[in-house]
């Protein structure tokens, strides 16, 4: 079976992160770190990040009550700002434009959120080196 590549506005290269909505961040952080043995990476506000193989796991408090708890797939992009421009011209609905989420020692983590045609929230992420 041959993979099909199209002339899409943006090319997603890999799954970079999965987000799980939690009710108690401290409790969930202890569970994933101390019971499941995941490598804790960093905290950012109401979020905690872990490494799980090549994919990052984000635990985050819901901004508003969610039933059932939500899961978001985050797709890695080389240039989130160019993707934002391209997807806007294609009529994609952005729930949040690209914004800085965390300053790491040698790069910055940027995210944006879009809605797919079925109403699912998808995250777009770029880890950009500082100039």
- Shape category: globular
Please name the CATH architecture: Roll
CATH topology: 2,3-Dihydroxybiphenyl 1,2-Dioxygenase, domain 1
Specify the helix fraction band: 10-25%
Tell me the name of the CATH class.
Alpha Beta
Which H/E pattern describes the elements? Answer: EHEEEEHEEE
Span between termini: 42 Å
SS content category: alpha+beta
Number of domains: 1
User: Ranges with pLDDT <50 over ≥5 residues?
Assistant: none
Give an account of the 3D structure.
The protein is of the alpha+beta class and 131 residues long. The protein has a single domain, classed as 2,3-Dihydroxybiphenyl 1,2-Dioxygenase, domain 1 (Roll), CATH 3.10.180. 16% of the residues lie in helices and 48% in strands. It has an 8-stranded mixed β-sheet. β6 and β7 form a beta hairpin. It starts with 13 loop residues before the first strand and ends with a strand.
Protein traits:
about 130 residues; alpha+beta; 2,3-Dihydroxybiphenyl 1,2-Dioxygenase, domain 1; 8-stranded mixed β-sheet
List the SSEs and their pairings.
Layout (H helix, E strand, L loop, with lengths): L13 E9 L2 H11 L3 E6 L2 E6 L2 E7 L9 E6 L3 H10 L3 E11 L3 E9 L5 E9 L2
Parallel strand pairs: 1-4, 5-8
Antiparallel strand pairs: 1-5, 2-3, 3-4, 6-7, 7-8
């Amino acid at each position: 079976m041959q993979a099909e590549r199209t002339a899409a506005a943006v090319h997603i290269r890999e799954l970079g992160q999965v987000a799980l909505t939690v009710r108690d961040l401290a409790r969930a952080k202890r569970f994933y770190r101390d019971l499941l043995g995941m490598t804790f990476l960093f905290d950012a506000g109401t979020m905690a990040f872990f490494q799980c193989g090549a994919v990052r796991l984000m635990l985050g408090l819901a901004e508003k009550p969610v039933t059932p708890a939500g899961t978001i797939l985050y797709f890695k992009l080389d240039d989130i700002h160019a993707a934002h421009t391209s997807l806007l011209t294609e009529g994609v609905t952005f729930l949040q434009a690209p914004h800085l989420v965390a300053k790491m020692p040698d790069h910055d983590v940027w995210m944006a959120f879009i809605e797919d045609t079925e109403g699912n929230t998808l995250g777009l992420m770029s880890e950009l080196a500082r100039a």
